[in-house]
Amino acid sequence: MGEELTEPGGGVRLYVEAPLGHHVRVTPDEGQAHYLLHVMRAKVGDLLTLFNGRDGEWSARIAEVSKRTCVLECKTQIGAQREVPDLWLVFAPVKKTPADYLTQKATELGVRVLQPVFTRRTIVTRVNTDRMRANAIEAAEQSGRVSVPETREAVGFEKLLAHWPAERRIFFCDEAGDAKPIADVLRDAPDERCAIFTGPEGGFESREREALRALANVTPVSLGTRILRADTAALAALAVWQAIKGDWRA
Amino acid sequence: MGEELTEPGGGVRLYVEAPLGHHVRVTPDEGQAHYLLHVMRAKVGDLLTLFNGRDGEWSARIAEVSKRTCVLECKTQIGAQREVPDLWLVFAPVKKTPADYLTQKATELGVRVLQPVFTRRTIVTRVNTDRMRANAIEAAEQSGRVSVPETREAVGFEKLLAHWPAERRIFFCDEAGDAKPIADVLRDAPDERCAIFTGPEGGFESREREALRALANVTPVSLGTRILRADTAALAALAVWQAIKGDWRA
To answer: Are A246 and B236 a contacting pair at CB < 8 A?
Structure first.
């Protein structure tokens, strides 16, 4: 029957866009084929896991191999489709290496949407959405997720607020104000659609803080008095949310 | 009176080892002198902040400048000595870039001690303690801490357990077992000396888990079912601890 393709940390899991189902055949993309054939030295009959964010998790085998590509065939469904909690991360983008790190960690921590937003003090002027997407896919594969977070194009602060969905609560990490401690706020919060909103290194401008607080469904939260880097604040708030409101609960 | 040396994120804060007090003069080390004179282009009379982990936070001025070094003179104490909560991070070391990141973030998140430990599945075989110390100092300066976490030499798992202080509770991040959710455990935990203990990418071996659970003051905790990288797990657990048990509380 072939062997399971393994590496430190577990078997190979690949995200694909194609539909998955009994005996369905899938052609991996160029990078995946290279990884399977030349990094993992996969042979016909070897097993791996596939998911596409819609059809659950499938055990598949390598059905054909040619020089440059291969064909994978779904065998059995090994897990149902499941979703992470309905939590978005809205964040002022950071530079390259911290941005990679932030995307990977936020994916492991189980966000559903990654939404970069340009605030006035944001120094980064461009977001590489393709790179963000690639990082999110890799982290989803490695973390055992059956879904990849949606990576959105960056938007300006005013536009984001103007189109903010009324039914989604924003927990806004406010280092400058009189915000209540995040654990106190989350402990008393109802179960609803949520977003964590974190600012750039220099913080939000006061007019941005006012605009945020003027929205009906915004709750400022405090992450203590030490100065956290932008990416630290985002990951810390996501972890605390998952622990108190998310799927780290029993 | 000179001007405050500023950069994105706030004024210059430097950690020094020398005693601090009224009119006390301090000579920065070579790297700090280079940074002040050639990166920040400091001049006599410019102001900065000093701390040493014992004498509080001091406003100092640049009293003398020569080609290669300078002399700083303490003016007024601007903050009392204060400590972070009594929380240690015990962690299986990770490779270079994630290790830098982990040290920086753990410092921002307010740990008192960083203790690397070699478990059976730890892949990294060497910890650069000097580099860890330098990262901790830089993060302490930038995060507004008045103390630098103690960065300890790496030890083996058995040795660590054999010498573990009886009065310090270990919250052990156990991905394999029946551990209770971290928020539930911390909510009911008494205030005491604590450590977060996180394993390597491949997790603890079962005999290590048993050895840990056999200690009197060890509580396993769960961070959910997604697979977290070693550094993500450590940072997530620290953030949740600060939010529920630490100084992010009101």
So the answer is: no
* Amino acid at site B121: R
Q: Which chain A positions have a beta carbon within 8 Å of B240's beta carbon?
A: 239-240, 243
Residue of B nearest to A224 (CA): B248
Bridge partners, residue B50, by sequence: B14, B58
Measure A45 CA to nearest chain B CA, in Å: 26
Distance from CA of A164 to the nearest CA of B (A): 28
Listed by number, the residues of chain B in 180-219 with a beta carbon closer than 8 Å to a beta carbon of chain A are 180-184, 201-202
Per-residue pLDDT band at A56 (split at 50, 70, 90): very high
Q: What are A139's two structure tokens?
A: 């982290």
Minimal CA separation from A241 to chain B, in Å: 9
Residue pair B87/B195 in contact (Cβ under 8 Å)? The answer is yes
Output the CA angle B44-B45-B48, nearest 5 degrees. 105
Cα separation, A82 vs A188, in Å, equals: 26
Question: Do residue A243 and residue B123 have CB atoms under 8 angstroms apart?
Answer: no
Task: Write the class of the CATH domain A6-79.
Answer: mainly beta
Q: Domain locations in chain A?
A: 6-79, 87-244
Contact at CB, B250 and A97, closer than 8 angstroms? no
Record: contact A228-B143, CB cut-off 8 A: yes
Q: Quote the minimal CA–CA distance from B180 to chain A in Å.
A: 7
C-alpha A215/C-alpha A236 separation (Å) is: 24
The pLDDT tens digits of the residues spanning A24-48 come to 999 999 999 999 999 999 999 999 9
Quote the pLDDT of residue B157. Answer: 97
Mean pLDDT for all residues in chain B: 94
Task: For A202-225, write each residue's pLDDT tens digit.
Answer: 899 999 999 999 998 999 999 999
Residues B181, A250: C-beta atoms closer than 8 Å: yes
Provide the residue type at B134 as one letter: A
What is the rounded distance in angstroms from the CA atom of residue A141 to the CA atom of residue A143?
A: 6
CATH of domain B87-244: 3.40.1280.10
| B67 to B30, B34, B42: CA distances (angstroms) | 12, 10, 12
Q: Kindly give the pairing relationship between strand B57-65 and strand B70-79.
A: antiparallel
Sort strands A180-181 and A155-156 into parallel, antiparallel or unpaired.
unpaired
* ipTM for this prediction: 0.94
Distances (CA, A) of B75 to A119, B41, B59, B81: 37, 21, 6, 16
Q: Give the three-class secondary structure for B192.
A: coil
Residues of A in contact with B181 (CB under 8 A): 243, 248-250
B169-192 tens-digit pLDDT: 999 999 887 899 999 999 999 999
Return the amino acid letter for B238. L
Q: What value does the mean pLDDT take over residues A159-163?
A: 96
Kindly tell me if the per-residue pLDDT of A19 is higher than 80.
yes
